[in-house]
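One-letter codes give the sequence; the fold follows as tokens. An example follows:
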Amino acid sequence: MRSITLFLLFLFLFSLVLSAQTATTTENGGSSSVYFIALKIYLRNLNSEEKILFFRRDDRITAGLPAVLEGYNLQFLSMRDLKKKLKTKKSELMVYKIFPMKFEDGFFCVGIIRYKVTRDKRKVLRMSYEGGMHVYFSYDCEKNILSIVDDKIKMFGI
């Protein structure tokens, strides 16, 4: 019994020491990340008077993204930060979310969606869909290159 307990303790402690695998596609400071590229394309097409944009933080996706891009200041907020910002700033905020890359119709796709976030009388957050963009990438196995498919980039929304 004691040897089993020691073995389990050893496994537990060993797992704390190991570094977890990260799901990033970044090199050179993140500029080759598909999320960075998709965000850059989205911001180039965005006609917003706001110079500070709030993004929903997702450590798998937004961790390597810069704080300033294409003339916009980007703030990555957790849900707790978002609630605080709504409480102190305004009654509504525009919040952007970058979705994980998916494979769709033979292409890789990254979606960026804009939501209007409000707080009702019971302090419940309401998120209303406002639109967004899908950025498509193709992968050439022979050349080992992921490239943007310009004619499939789609803006959508209200």
The chain is about 25% helix and 40% strand.
